Amino acid sequence: MNLEADIRWKEKPFCLLNRQARTEVKNQAQIGEYSTGDEIWNTDYPGNQFLIISGKVRLKEKGKSKSLGILKAGDWIGDLLELSGQFKATASNNVVVVCWDAALWTRVSSKKVNHFWNQQRSHYQPQNVNLLWQVEQTQKQEKFSLSWFVPAIWKYHRLLGWLTDKTQFVLQAAFRD
Fold first, then answer.
1. Most buried among 11, 50, 116, 131, by the most CB within 10 A?
2. Could you tell me the CA-to-CA distances from 141 to 7, 118, 145 in Å, in that order?
3. 50-59 pLDDT, tens per residue?
4. How far apart are CA 81 and CA 70, in angstroms?
Protein backbone atom coordinates (compact mmCIF):
# COMPACT_ATOMS: atom_id res chain seq x y z
CA MET A 1 0.00 0.00 0.00
CA ASN A 2 1.20 3.47 -0.90
CA LEU A 3 0.18 6.10 1.68
CA GLU A 4 0.74 8.96 -0.75
CA ALA A 5 -1.52 7.40 -3.38
CA ASP A 6 -4.17 5.74 -1.22
CA ILE A 7 -4.94 8.62 1.14
CA ARG A 8 -6.63 11.72 -0.24
CA TRP A 9 -4.35 14.27 1.37
CA LYS A 10 -6.10 17.20 -0.34
CA GLU A 11 -9.47 16.33 1.27
CA LYS A 12 -10.81 16.92 4.78
CA PRO A 13 -9.54 16.67 7.43
CA PHE A 14 -6.01 16.60 5.98
CA CYS A 15 -6.42 19.81 3.98
CA LEU A 16 -7.45 21.58 7.19
CA LEU A 17 -4.04 20.94 8.75
CA ASN A 18 -1.09 23.26 8.42
CA ARG A 19 1.98 21.95 6.58
CA GLN A 20 3.84 20.89 9.74
CA ALA A 21 0.82 19.05 11.16
CA ARG A 22 0.15 17.31 7.82
CA THR A 23 3.75 16.10 7.74
CA GLU A 24 3.47 14.81 11.31
CA VAL A 25 0.22 13.00 10.48
CA LYS A 26 1.80 11.44 7.36
CA ASN A 27 4.85 10.28 9.31
CA GLN A 28 2.83 8.63 12.08
CA ALA A 29 0.32 6.83 9.87
CA GLN A 30 0.28 3.05 10.33
CA ILE A 31 -1.30 0.51 8.00
CA GLY A 32 -3.59 -2.12 9.48
CA GLU A 33 -5.06 -5.16 7.74
CA TYR A 34 -8.02 -7.09 9.14
CA SER A 35 -9.89 -10.22 8.09
CA THR A 36 -13.63 -10.88 8.26
CA GLY A 37 -14.85 -10.74 11.86
CA ASP A 38 -11.73 -9.10 13.29
CA GLU A 39 -12.37 -6.31 15.75
CA ILE A 40 -10.80 -3.08 14.52
CA TRP A 41 -11.87 -0.66 17.25
CA ASN A 42 -14.10 -0.45 20.31
CA THR A 43 -14.88 2.12 22.94
CA ASP A 44 -13.39 -0.04 25.73
CA TYR A 45 -9.87 0.31 24.28
CA PRO A 46 -9.56 3.95 23.27
CA GLY A 47 -6.61 5.68 21.72
CA ASN A 48 -6.90 5.33 17.95
CA GLN A 49 -8.44 6.96 14.92
CA PHE A 50 -8.93 4.97 11.70
CA LEU A 51 -9.47 5.85 8.06
CA ILE A 52 -10.88 2.95 6.03
CA ILE A 53 -8.92 2.51 2.81
CA SER A 54 -10.63 -0.61 1.46
CA GLY A 55 -13.23 -3.13 2.54
CA LYS A 56 -16.29 -2.73 4.72
CA VAL A 57 -16.56 -2.28 8.48
CA ARG A 58 -19.64 -3.03 10.56
CA LEU A 59 -20.40 -0.60 13.40
CA LYS A 60 -22.46 -2.12 16.22
CA GLU A 61 -23.58 -1.11 19.65
CA LYS A 62 -22.01 -3.51 22.14
CA GLY A 63 -24.34 -6.27 23.29
CA LYS A 64 -26.68 -5.86 20.33
CA SER A 65 -26.72 -7.96 17.20
CA LYS A 66 -28.17 -5.34 14.86
CA SER A 67 -25.64 -3.29 12.93
CA LEU A 68 -25.85 0.51 13.14
CA GLY A 69 -24.18 0.87 9.80
CA ILE A 70 -21.64 -0.34 7.31
CA LEU A 71 -18.62 1.89 6.83
CA LYS A 72 -16.67 1.85 3.59
CA ALA A 73 -13.53 3.31 2.05
CA GLY A 74 -13.17 6.97 2.99
CA ASP A 75 -15.12 6.66 6.26
CA TRP A 76 -13.59 7.36 9.67
CA ILE A 77 -14.01 5.54 12.95
CA GLY A 78 -12.35 5.99 16.30
CA ASP A 79 -12.07 8.01 19.46
CA LEU A 80 -12.30 11.49 17.95
CA LEU A 81 -15.90 10.87 16.93
CA GLU A 82 -16.73 10.72 20.66
CA LEU A 83 -19.74 8.47 20.13
CA SER A 84 -21.95 8.26 23.20
CA GLY A 85 -22.43 4.66 24.24
CA GLN A 86 -20.45 1.45 23.86
CA PHE A 87 -19.56 0.58 20.26
CA LYS A 88 -17.31 -1.70 18.30
CA ALA A 89 -16.22 -1.86 14.70
CA THR A 90 -15.51 -5.22 13.04
CA ALA A 91 -14.34 -6.15 9.56
CA SER A 92 -17.16 -7.35 7.28
CA ASN A 93 -14.58 -8.59 4.79
CA ASN A 94 -10.86 -8.00 4.24
CA VAL A 95 -10.21 -4.45 5.38
CA VAL A 96 -7.25 -2.11 5.10
CA VAL A 97 -7.14 0.93 7.37
CA VAL A 98 -4.72 3.67 8.22
CA CYS A 99 -4.42 4.18 11.96
CA TRP A 100 -3.23 7.11 14.01
CA ASP A 101 -2.90 7.75 17.69
CA ALA A 102 -5.94 9.88 18.56
CA ALA A 103 -3.70 12.05 20.76
CA LEU A 104 -1.78 13.10 17.62
CA TRP A 105 -4.99 14.38 16.02
CA THR A 106 -5.92 16.17 19.24
CA ARG A 107 -2.50 17.84 19.33
CA VAL A 108 -2.59 19.06 15.69
CA SER A 109 -6.28 19.93 15.74
CA SER A 110 -7.93 23.27 15.06
CA LYS A 111 -11.49 24.60 15.17
CA LYS A 112 -12.00 23.50 11.56
CA VAL A 113 -10.68 20.00 12.24
CA ASN A 114 -12.88 19.71 15.33
CA HIS A 115 -15.85 20.79 13.23
CA PHE A 116 -14.99 17.99 10.77
CA TRP A 117 -15.06 15.41 13.60
CA ASN A 118 -18.42 16.77 14.79
CA GLN A 119 -19.84 16.36 11.29
CA GLN A 120 -18.52 12.80 11.12
CA ARG A 121 -20.07 11.98 14.50
CA SER A 122 -23.50 12.98 13.23
CA HIS A 123 -23.22 10.32 10.50
CA TYR A 124 -22.67 7.51 12.98
CA GLN A 125 -24.35 8.50 16.23
CA PRO A 126 -27.69 6.72 16.44
CA GLN A 127 -30.71 8.91 17.05
CA ASN A 128 -33.05 8.13 19.92
CA VAL A 129 -36.13 7.42 17.83
CA ASN A 130 -38.40 7.15 20.89
CA LEU A 131 -37.34 10.57 22.12
CA LEU A 132 -37.94 12.15 18.72
CA TRP A 133 -41.39 10.53 18.55
CA GLN A 134 -42.27 11.78 22.05
CA VAL A 135 -41.29 15.35 21.17
CA GLU A 136 -43.34 15.20 17.98
CA GLN A 137 -46.39 13.85 19.83
CA THR A 138 -46.11 16.51 22.54
CA GLN A 139 -45.98 19.25 19.92
CA LYS A 140 -49.09 17.85 18.21
CA GLN A 141 -50.97 17.68 21.53
CA GLU A 142 -50.06 21.25 22.43
CA LYS A 143 -51.17 22.48 19.05
CA PHE A 144 -54.43 20.52 19.24
CA SER A 145 -55.28 21.79 22.73
CA LEU A 146 -55.21 25.40 21.50
CA SER A 147 -56.70 24.75 18.07
CA TRP A 148 -60.30 25.34 19.24
CA PHE A 149 -59.32 28.65 20.81
CA VAL A 150 -57.67 30.32 17.82
CA PRO A 151 -60.69 30.23 15.43
CA ALA A 152 -62.86 31.68 18.18
CA ILE A 153 -60.44 34.57 18.66
CA TRP A 154 -60.21 35.21 14.92
CA LYS A 155 -63.98 35.19 14.58
CA TYR A 156 -64.62 37.77 17.27
CA HIS A 157 -61.47 39.88 17.34
CA ARG A 158 -62.81 42.47 14.88
CA LEU A 159 -66.04 42.79 16.82
CA LEU A 160 -64.31 43.17 20.13
CA GLY A 161 -61.34 45.15 18.83
CA TRP A 162 -59.10 43.97 21.66
CA LEU A 163 -56.36 42.13 19.70
CA THR A 164 -53.29 44.16 18.93
CA ASP A 165 -51.29 43.73 15.74
CA LYS A 166 -48.59 41.97 17.75
CA THR A 167 -51.07 39.46 19.21
CA GLN A 168 -52.42 38.72 15.74
CA PHE A 169 -48.89 38.13 14.45
CA VAL A 170 -48.09 35.75 17.32
CA LEU A 171 -51.26 33.76 16.71
CA GLN A 172 -50.57 33.54 12.98
CA ALA A 173 -47.01 32.37 13.58
CA ALA A 174 -48.04 29.79 16.21
CA PHE A 175 -50.50 28.02 13.95
CA ARG A 176 -48.89 28.38 10.57
CA ASP A 177 -48.14 24.92 9.11
1. 50
2. 51, 33, 6
3. 999 999 999 8
4. 16
